[in-house]
Amino acid sequence: MLTGKLVRVKLAKNKIVPLYIEPDNESLLALAEQILLAYRNSAGHTRGEIEDELKDFTPEGPRGLLPAGLAKLCEDRTEFEVAADHPPDELREAVFKAAATARAESANAKKPFDRNAVMSEVAEQLSLTLTVEQIDRSLFADLKDEQRVIKFDDLTPEQLLNRYNVALAQAILLRCTLMEVRVYAETPARFRQLFRAVKFHRLICTIQETPGDSYKLTLDGPLSLFSSTNKYGLQLALFLPTLLHCKAFDLRANIRWGAQKKEKLFHLTGSDGLRSHAPDFGVYTPPELQMFADTFATKVKGWTLDSDPHPILLATGVWVPDFKLTHAKSGKEVFVEVFGFWRKGDIETHYKNLAKGVPGKFVLCVSEQMRADEADEVTFGNGVYRYKRTPLPEEVARMAEKVAGV
């Protein structure tokens, strides 16, 4: 992800326009190749050494923003480690104490300070079989610039340039207060994938069926929340690559930009040419939901679980449950939705809509750990199961029996 200092945009009245690049531009492809080479050959090197190698390609000032951004995206694909023969913090404490004592003794005896002798003394004191060179190398190994590369997840120059354009849009959405997306003429499987992505990233969202074979998604932005803004903003940005798999969409977001957080409009459509770097999993099911489904099948008797229920049209919009439970004896159906991020007003409104639209046919699993405001306690009626870490299938089934009256 790009940091705020690396984002390249222009402002036009009330609009914010990212400075996208052309992924097929020959000079930019050559630049991307040079940056990629530094990371492809980086195994065993430190962050600081890679930065030194890239200094000629990342000048100070506005001209350096693009190459620095490309380098940041490569760094995000790199796995680093602290390469030390002994915990660096313990070594530093012992070495600094020994050095202070040795300097005082050297000053009193008017003798030169012997650095190697201090290192040897520390090794003996800590019962370490380390050489002076090993102690020296490990002393600051936990500092960021001294972390060493284990591996780099390679990609092509064109993929890196496409990834840069998406990263620009994502960085803008981190400052979003409200986002509306219209998605047109997609297959049912694609719509379900999109709705699943909303749930997977635990976004606060309302979905409405709209004319022209389309759906409108209204999502709260991180700056509309009272807390968890960094984590929620990242989840919203991570949702964008899934949206980019759709052929036709229209995204409009209200952005608070700059030090004064002035309101700006960001607009993105399927014709802007951004290409998703995320794999297209189609009808992919998030791991935690798949794990719940698998566990439910083994631990719960008397109910069957469907992981792919159809969206349900309510008077207030479209509801996309995660599961449909069917009672074996009575045939009664209960729909289950797992809630991540939530606020008191949103969850209460959603509960009332379901209680009116599908009474006795729903269970909401609400996380106790991912509340996004600090308002008063929330009181619900039947159909709400509050969990701490992960929803338990047995408890969900018990709640389903209660609401369905079986």
Short description:
The chain has twelve helices and 16 strands. It is of the alpha+beta class and 406 residues long. Helix 1 (26-40) packs across helix 7.
Secondary structure layout:
Blueprint: E1 9-12, E2 15-18, H1 26-40, H2 47-53, H3 65-76, E3 78-81, H4 88-109, H5 115-125, H6 132-138, E4 148-152, H7 157-173, E5 176-184, H8 188-200, E6 205-210, E7 214-220, H9 229-243, E8 249-257, E9 262-269, H10 287-299, E10 303-306, E11 312-314, E12 317-319, E13 323-327, E14 333-339, H11 344-357, E15 362-367, E16 384-387, H12 393-404
Parallel strand pairs: 14-15, 15-16
Antiparallel strand pairs: 1-2, 3-4, 5-7, 5-8, 6-7, 8-9, 10-13, 11-12, 13-14
Biggest sheet strand line-up: 6-7-5-8-9
Order of helices and strands: EEHHHEHHHEHEHEEHEEHEEEEEHEEH
Uncertain runs are: none
* The CATH C-level class name of the domain at 287-404: Alpha Beta
Task: Assess the beta-strand content as a share of residues.
Answer: 15-25%
Number of strands: 16
Radius of gyration: 27 Å
Major sheet summary line:
5 strands, antiparallel
Which geometry do the CA atoms define?
globular
CATH architecture of the domain at 287-404: 3-Layer(aba) Sandwich
CATH level-3 fold name of the domain at 287-404: Trna Endonuclease, Chain: A, domain 1
What is the typical, i.e. mean, pLDDT? Answer: 87
